[in-house]
Amino acid sequence: MELLRTESLVLVRDGLLAMQLDTELVKVHADCVDRPNLKKARTITLSITFTPVGDDPLDGVDVEFSVKASLPPATIGRQMKSFAKRNGFAFDTDTDSISHDVRQRRLDGIDEDED
Fold this sequence. Notes:
This protein is an alpha+beta fold. The chain contains 1 helix and 4 strands, in the order αββββ.
């Protein structure tokens, strides 16, 4: 029997807890490498929940371990035009690098409902 302490956490469930923690560490590292300019915190949470089992005197506890990484959401910005008569927003799918004159008509007729 092992006494539950920080140094024995690597032995829980034959190393499964440590493996889960390592998996989340890899996710956080990969996100930091992929998005180094995003200066928001990445968090790993290890939660340990204890529920008493048995009567007085205490026989034991059910222990649940939960490991979770929290990464900042991936965001993609895009300006879109409002079309009030169609109750929606629209954007050109041909390219994001071209800015069309607002008075320019499109061949696909997307602007047909404008006055």
